[in-house]
Amino acid sequence: MIEDGLVDMITNQPFDVTLPHTVLAACESGAIGMGSFMTPFLLAFPNCDVRQLAQPPKVTETRDWAFLPSTYSDDLLRPGHLRPAILLESVIGTGPGRYRATNKLDDWLDGIGPGPVLLHVDMDYFNNRYDGDGDWPDRHPRHDPPLQDVVSHIDEVVAALKGADVLRRVEDAVIAFSPGFFPAEMWATAGARLGAGLAELYD
Asked: What is the secondary structure of the chain as a DSSP string?
């Protein structure tokens, strides 16, 4: 981190979440990864309303937080230099600058305010058999429903999005197949079903 902006701590190049070429470069260098990509986004857009829909055992209830910009002292790449961070403060309710995690469709979509929507679908929401864990056969409980249940749940999520009148506001959507988490034998059927359900996004 530098006083007048962020810097890729591996390549020493400037990083700006609003400049796609710098984001791509940071992903390629490894400075931005699966566990860190939301931090610069939330710092750049502190008034966004973040909603995460997950299933047990990952999430078992509805909880809300305010996300607050912060820093911490790096102890790996540049000891003593400040790195950007996001702190979470428990609150009640959603809105600008808030993050909700829930396993309930109604709570996920409740009270979404006006404005553009970014939709990111991790397919491991529907089945997280492996959870990036080589010892997954011994892990219990795990979220590993059969394909017919995955397809049925896809239909439920799409119906909820349409019922809440959210789809027409989606400005960008990503479907992530989650290798190492979501079973590959389900990719074709589940991806086609979700793509068909979200087809109006591409009209």
From this structure: -BTTBEE-TTT--EE-TT-HHHHHHHHHHTSS-TTTTHHHHHHH-TT-EEEEE--TTT--S-EEEEEEEEEEE-SSSSTTSEEEEEEEEEESS--TTEEEEES-HHHHHTT--SS-EEEEEEGGGT--SSTT-TTGGG-SS-----HHHHHHHHHHHHHHHHHTT-GGGEEEEEEE--TTTS-GGGHHHHHHHHHHHTGGGG-
